[in-house]
Design goal:
This protein has 438 residues and is mainly α. It has a domain of 296 residues. The protein contains 18 helices and no strands. It binds phenylalanine. The site of phenylalanine has 15 residues, from helix 1, helix 2, helix 10 and helix 14. Phenylalanine (PHE) binds next to helix 1, helix 2, helix 10 and helix 14.
Length: 438
């Protein structure tokens, strides 16, 4: 039974939408398209799909079953399962990762916030095409402006988390996720009927293996981690609000499928427009903030479409940032007995302060992003796989996998993945990051 004061989902729909909301974020709309653009198009997409199926889904299951069986935040969960060992440190790693990731995530989401209201007020239309790059450069070098947007975004995040699991996180996800898909469909209608549609589809769906490098292969794996919110206990935390009689297998597949679908749809919106207006598909991180606005500026009704697009980015970012904050907040509530609203606003304020350098110090954001994406999440994911595959006995893992749903569908395959496949694959990423291979 979930402790009533901790909160719980009203059912599996609430859980799936909240967890998919966590997964679907800047990773899908901002990173996935530009990484696909610079790493061989469909060749990257293919590797990404393999990573999601072979490593992503097993790790979602591992995290969710750890959360569901303990009903605790990540630190408390490992302490409950392995009292008196070093494993709770793995929970700490997650709490730290939540801090670090949200600190710069709030800054990038702040850019989306700025783009949203500017396009809504018609301000983006006043900028000419050459001006877009300059606009973005000016925004990203204007410390106070970025800090103000980041503060606004963090306040939205804290306000939702403060209302609790059901009235805050679940309700926000139930509103924002359908809205997000609806907005995406509107944009998809435009982009798939644009002149560059077939070129855009080709670009995304035809593999160019010659452009794929070893670092592209690793980027696909790292992308799967970040995009599925794995390696830092976000899924442990969300799993801890799940009732024991809910099966975890179907939700895990659904979460991974929705996340992947949205990343691909985001690419299907972006690339046709990029080709229609003769822009550069391999533009890198500036793809949605510089390249895409250039396309919007040339389109009839572009200001409206730009507003829709950036609102979509913003909604996706909110449903992810609340999961990042919730990891830390659940820890503070469970372990320090602090009231939820106090914990939410207090932690958000601390994370905001930690994020200020990402907004004002040039190069800092990339540094922390590198630290989180290349180290914290892969190390966390590696250890979570080792925990589920090796530290947990087969009987213990089976019992946690079943819960009271009594479904062990796929247990054997899952156990093999977390025992061998996931640690090996993630271990390779880490060795590469250390410069020991490749
Ligand atoms: N998955 C989120 C995204 O794609 C980011 C995230 C990572 C959220 C880790 C929670 C935990 O934007």
């Amino acid at each position: 039974m979930a402790t009533p004061s901790r909160g719980s989902w009203t059912g599996h729909l609430g859980f799936v939408l909240a967890a998919a909301g966590s997964a679907i974020g800047l990773g899908n709309i901002w990173m996935f398209p530009y990484r696909t653009g610079t790493n061989g198009g469909a060749a990257f997409v293919l590797l990404y799909l393999i990573a999601v199926i072979a490593i992503g889904i097993p790790l979602i299951l591992a995290e969710v079953l750890i959360g569901r069986s303990t009903k605790k935040n990540p630190v408390g969960a490992f302490r409950t399962l392995r009292q008196g060992t070093a494993w709770p440190a793995l929970g700490w790693l997650g709490v730290v990762a939540g801090f670090v990731i949200l600190s710069y995530y709030g800054v990038v989401a702040g850019w989306a916030l700025e783009y949203t209201w500017r396009s809504a007020l018609g301000g983006l239309g006043a900028i000419d095409e050459e001006g877009v790059a300059e606009f973005f450069a000016r925004l990203t070098s204007d410390g106070p402006r970025q800090v103000a947007e980041q503060a606004a975004f963090m306040a939205i995040t804290a306000a939702i988390v403060a209302r609790g699991v059901e009235a805050g996180i679940e309700r926000a996800s139930k509103v924002l996720m359908p809205l997000l898909f609806a907005l995406l469909l509107v944009l998809l209608g435009y982009s798939l009927t644009s002149e560059g549609a077939s070129q855009g589809l080709d670009f995304l769906l035809k593999p160019r293996f010659d452009e794929l490098t070893w670092s592209g292969v690793l980027a696909a794996l790292g992308q799967a981690f970040f995009s599925l919110s794995l390696g830092m206990g976000a899924m442990i935390t969300y799993g801890s609000y799940l009732a024991d009689d809910e099966s975890i297998v179907k939700p895990a597949f659904l979460i991974a499928s929705l996340d992947t679908l949205l990343a691909i749809l985001a690419g299907l919106v972006i690339f046709p427009l990029v080709f229609t207006y003769g822009l550069e598909p391999g533009a890198g991180p500036g793809l949605i903030f510089i390249t895409l606005p250039k396309a919007f500026l040339q389109m009839p009704g572009g200001g409206f479409l730009a507003t829709i697009f950036f609102a979509l980015v913003l909604f996706a970012a909110v449903t992810s940032s609340i999961s990042l904050l919730e990891v830390v907040v659940s820890f503070v509530i469970d372990e320090m007995n602090v009231r939820r609203d106090v914990a939410s606003w207090g932690v958000a304020l601390l994370i905001f302060a930690l994020g200020v350098p990402s907004a004002v110090v040039p190069g800092f954001l990339d540094l922390v992003d590198g630290l989180a994406s290349n180290w914290l999440l892969p190390v966390g994911g590696f250890l979570i796989a080792v925990f589920a595959g090796w530290a947990m006995t087969a009987d213990e893992a089976r019992a946690a996998y079943r819960g009271r749903s009594n479904s062990e569908l796929g247990f054997g395959a899952w156990r093999l993945c977390v025992r061998y496949l996931a640690p090996t694959a993630v271990g390779v990423i880490l060795l590469q990051n250390l410069g020991l291979i490749g």
